[in-house]
Fold this sequence. Notes:
Blueprint lengths: L1 E8 L7 E7 L2 E8 L2 E6 L13 E3 L2 E3 L6 E3 L15 E2 L1 E4 L2 E7 L20
Amino acid sequence: MAEWLPIAAASECPPGTSLERVVGNRIVALANLDGVWHAIDGLCPHQGGPLGTGKLCGALLTCPWHGWQFDMPTGRHRLSATVTQPRFDVREAEGQVLIRVESGAPVEVPPAEVGTAGGPTA
Ligand code: FES
């Protein structure tokens, strides 16, 4: 069963910024792209880096550890079509940003593609 859970006050994540939060049993990267919210799994599939603390440039969020980049609206790795972060539905209500999560869903960590075409090797 899915439920909407608060992730942050809207004021905590102004346009052009991102942040990291733990929601339920998930680490989530939230971004505000000119007033449109996007949320993806915040655990980098490369080596578990904290995506939500990375640099947001346009719609691209860069992992602070080794630079893998993800498109926030789609969750797709910038270079590798086979790497896609799980996404969350997001909505704003009464100044709060909420994401839709499956209750009790296990944390799924996609396998890393270290050294494969399109992904950084570091
Ligand atoms: S852990 Fe994110 S790029 Fe390596």
